[in-house]
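Example 3.2
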Amino acid sequence: MIQRVTYATVTVAGATTGRIGPGLVVLVGVAAVDGLSEAERLARKVGRMRLFESEARGFDLSVADIGGEVLVVSQFTLLADPGRQKGARPDFSDAAPADVAERIYEAFCDALRREGLRVQTGRFGASMEVLLLNDGPVTIIAEVAPPVA
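Structure, written as tokens:
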């Protein structure tokens, strides 16, 4: 999930681990079917997505175009399937195991940096507090399907 923000911070156990000004907050959920190629493709998509307005017209500029930053936060709950819930608890069986998800999350952050973006992060697997001011509001759900063999 991608949100255009005026600013954002993420805090873990009272300590700020990431802080950005204008840019994007990207909440990342890694599915069991995801791999490193999906991380690379999603980073290219995020880096090039035009979510900022120019003076001439709307949605004409990317986060790189405006000199913005990206705050990336891991969020496995994006993979919750309430349709398969057991009692009142959502089903998370579509989420990748933590060790795999962390490797793909880190690869995604590295790929964003290779796109030339300034990246801040939360802490994978930690309980985090995310504070943001959504600008617009603009919120986009972006998925990349695994490549077809």
